[in-house]
Amino acid sequence: MRIYVAKEEEIKGGEATDIYFIRTVDVIKKAGKDKPVRMEFHAYSLPKGYEWGIFAGLEEALSILEGRDVNVYAMPEGTIFYPKEPLMVIEGRYSEFGELETALLGVLRHNTSIATKAARIKLSAGDKAVLFFGLRAVHPAIQPSVDRAALVGGVDAVAGNLSEKYLGVKPVGTMPHALMIVFKDEEEAWIAFDKYVDPTVPRIVLVDTFYDERHSALKAAKLLKEKLYGVRLDTPGSRRGNMRAIVEEVRWTLDLHGFKHVKIIVSGGMDEEKIKELNDVVDAFGVGTAIAFPPSVDISADIVEVYDGAWEPLSKRGKLPGFKTVYRCGCEDYVLPYGSKPPKEGCEELLIKVMERGKVIVDLPDIMKIRERTLKGLKELSACKERKVYLLGGVGS
């Protein structure tokens, strides 16, 4: 018996791939057709109801490509993107990276899907905190990667114990229902938690294990008084009824007895719509599966140029040939041939060179800097009445 996960050296070595890529590289080499190409990573469509995505996974993708004789151009992680915009371009002989396509797509697609859903949820929560509690929905081997992608998407905190080791981010979280059940008494469990847990950990207690939420919330407040930071409602669906009505009862009761300082955190089955319904009466949201298992952002990879004495724009049908870049000019994006001048003043070029001959040539930001970029982008997005994307082939070429 074993845990079925690929080793890092197997991923970077190209073993974690679809077999037809290995066969393709072999055929191209033996046929003397191993030419330089430019391969573009993009999403030509997004999940239903989505208008944009959040690019994530670049750091891991560059790690996979490290040491390969390739150049890489990419958007910074945490960048909002739209369909048909190039997210990353690899330039080099096909044999240098062809067998890595599966791993690269897996990293970019998975991270981007999680980050995009997290950003949508953060946008719906506004100034209310979003805590990511979704690791139980994924394989444990990828916990740090999933926590990282959720942070890229803008969540305020993650619960994974390994997040501090791998990401430098302290995890959050207080107690599961198991604590009260083992004690067989919620008050005794809360007292023990307060006695033995590091005092820097906020005293947030679950108040829906055995009894009515309003009753237990008041009991916890009277027990812990000013030490009680908040109460968490994680009520099972079979007992939930009208969640807003439950929250309003708890808030009213706490306020009535002088416990206005006690915050209310709601978790369990949260998504954008439920968060919007509760946003004005809840102080923070715990979100799990909605972020950990999001709709998939369909990133694909296609050769868009081949070098045969000169670079020739070439792609399969249905895809736009040629090496491209993106300029963001306020509420407008322009997809242009790479090397084109900005269409107007004040534009930001989103595709930049990040790797040369297998070495990273930019300073990769830490996770909280990436999160800041996402949040800044969401704020700008909200300020635009509409976003327009212009595809202008041939301009400046």
Give the CATH H-level superfamily of the largest domain: nicotinate phosphoribosyltransferase
Total beta-strand segments: 19
Secondary structure class reads alpha/beta
Report how far the terminal alpha carbons are from each other. Answer: 58 Å
Just name the CATH architecture of the largest domain: Alpha-Beta Barrel
Q: Tally the helices: what do you get? A: 15
The share of residues in helices is 25-40%
> Any idea what the radius of gyration is?
25 Å
What CATH first level of the largest domain would be assigned? Alpha Beta
Task: Return the CATH topology of the largest domain.
Answer: nicotinate phosphoribosyltransferase
Beta-strand content bin:
15-25%
Reported for the largest beta sheet, the result is:
7 strands, antiparallel
Structural descriptors:
19 strands; 15 helices; nicotinate phosphoribosyltransferase; alpha/beta; 2 domains; six-stranded parallel sheet; 397 residues; single chain; TIM Barrel
Describe this structure in words.
This protein is an alpha/beta fold and about 400 residues long. The protein folds into 2 domains: about 10-105 and about 295-390, nicotinate phosphoribosyltransferase, CATH 3.20.140.10; about 175-285, Aldolase class I (TIM Barrel), CATH 3.20.20.70. Helices cover about 35% and strands about 20% of the residues. It has 15 helices and 19 strands. Strand 14 and strand 15 (about 330-335) form a beta hairpin. The radius of gyration is 25 Å and the shape is elongated. The termini are far apart. The mean pLDDT is about 95.
